[in-house]
């Protein structure tokens, strides 16, 4: 299970905490002790008005949150969706982002990068991309990990991907027929039985999510508290600063039949 309860931008965190705290403060919950209870049904309709004191307290933080979420951080050349199963443009983009991020920021050359398609909750529209849109796409508190895979671990990952068709990948090419793996290439090369491979992945999958328990005992080469959402934001801003548009397409990374 994935949980939505972390907000990576400090000012967004602050605004949300203030909005939440307003209800607690104004409810007079401190020091209250219930000694008995009784109740009756109350009809709630359009005549019930909001509490103006709470509303006035929340409004500045709500406005600040909306302003931050409305910031345009990049431009997309086309709509990037995730239709069907297996490879999709949005998944290719995020898998590539993870691979590039660990190389640029951590100095780690990951051989493979994967993202679960279910972790990407909506499409990336064409045109202006706001900070809020990235939160919609990646709302979960999933952290970026690097795992160290043996050749057998890579094979297991490849077979899983062919059968489940629920992952997007970067650095790995798969071809199958009748759900049977026929071809496996890592960055254009056959699997090296004497090599250890590094995999960029989120902690949800690394800890066995989406029926991937085979990753639980795999060595953690690096763990982090870097959110996948922050990786996406960082890479989009990087493209924007370079005057480039966000873009991704189907490339035949997964030829699954």
UniProtKB/TrEMBL annotation:
Pfam families: 5_nucleotid_C. Residues 84-213 form the 5'-Nucleotidase C-terminal domain. InterPro entries: 5'-Nucleotdase_C (IPR008334), 5'-Nucleotdase_C_sf (IPR036907), 5_nucleotidase/apyrase (IPR006179). PANTHER family: 5'-NUCLEOTIDASE, 5'-NUCLEOTIDASE-RELATED. This is 5'-nucleotidase C-terminal domain-containing protein. The lineage of its organism: Bacteria, Pseudomonadati, Bacteroidota, Cytophagia, Cytophagales.
